[in-house]
Specification:
456 residues; alpha+beta; Herpes Virus-1; Jelly Rolls; 2 domains; 4-stranded antiparallel sheet; elongated
Amino acid sequence: MEDRSTGGQFSGGASGSASWEGYSESPPLPFPPRRFPDYSPDFYREDRFQATNNEGLLTSNNRHGSAASTDDVKSCFVVSTAFSFFVSICLAFGLYGSETLKLGSNTSALINPNHLFVDSIKVAELDVAEGPVLYGFYKTPRLDVMDVWSEDHTVTLPSNFHKEWVYYLNEGSQLSINYTVESLSSLVLAILEGEEGLAKWLEDPSNPNTASSWNIIYGNGLIQKDITKSTSYYIAVGNLNDEAIKVDLSSRIKALLYNTTGPYYTCRPAYGECNFKLFWLGGNAAVLTSPRLLPGTSKVNWRVKLSYGARWMTYVLGTGAMISLLVLINYFLNHFQRTRRHRTRDNQSGESRAERNPLISNESDKHSSRSSSFDSASEGEGFLEDAKPGADKPGRDEEDSRRLCAICFEDPKDCFFLPCGHCVSCHGCATKVLEASGSCPICRRRIKKVRKIITV
């Protein structure tokens, strides 16, 4: 049949397929007149439809994926920042917090914290009596000075009462205690490490596990203790009896002291707070000393407050590194989860791929570069004829069900959406979708028109 209006040629076959050669603004008979005011003829080429549809899908996925990724990064950054800040504060004020030291006579304590976390050492004396001295050295001094002295103590212990003496002893020192108990009853003599050990012993003096050396003493005897750890040691005597008991103690201390000759920094806390700066790369160290007890003088204890100035640059850099590491770990975990979800979704959608594909495909071997959407429509007429009521064929129930409208499952698919080209419903349901949501139920792209497929 010859198209009189445009000079194009139209041919139809008995099978219901049709083709139209030569595009014009209105199709030849027997099709009704069609107008396309919003689109040029090139727009309806199959390759343009496919490219537009793919672009729309990718744009939508990228937009949602980008927004989700941005939200994940923001939330992870906030959580990582709060966590890292909390850890830094705990380290700054918990690892090197201030403490009160009780110093006995002839103390020689090395103070050398981690230089990466501590910027300065501050020492303030809490008592009026002059005594402790803080020395600063460019490198850790040698522990090679041996000093030996003795102290005698006579004390009467009332019922359920105790008495203690404190010494700071370095590794390699030795304690020897001679005792004389002037009663038939026994006492408890313990050597305790630090104030924590003393506190545990006071809770239960009869428990041997609360002391590094726990002894029941009566009559005369000797107790020795080799020092394997540099810290404060308490010699404590407790009376657990109902009567007062007198005891004589003679302590002989063999102590290793640090060599304090040639310091570049000297400060006495009794004259004001001492502030000793530590080098960033380490090397320098401080030694806190107390004077030796003179013969004929009573036992004196000094209390000093020791605090550390934090090196905040280390905490800032550490916090930044921790935040970066947590954000990076979260990014890779989210990327792995998204990749796994996409693979699962692709596998699940493989069965319905034919139903999700656009009606207008990019098959260059079937169409020329000037083909229109009516060519694709005519190609789909064959399966629409098979999907009509009464056209059931044996063994093709599943295939026929796929050709029915995906919304009402009653009428065949006889239309497609523009510009995406998806064919999923009958014309009645497609019109309702256009009026209700206005977006394709497959790709969620905006529907501009609904075109009905007419078979001859």
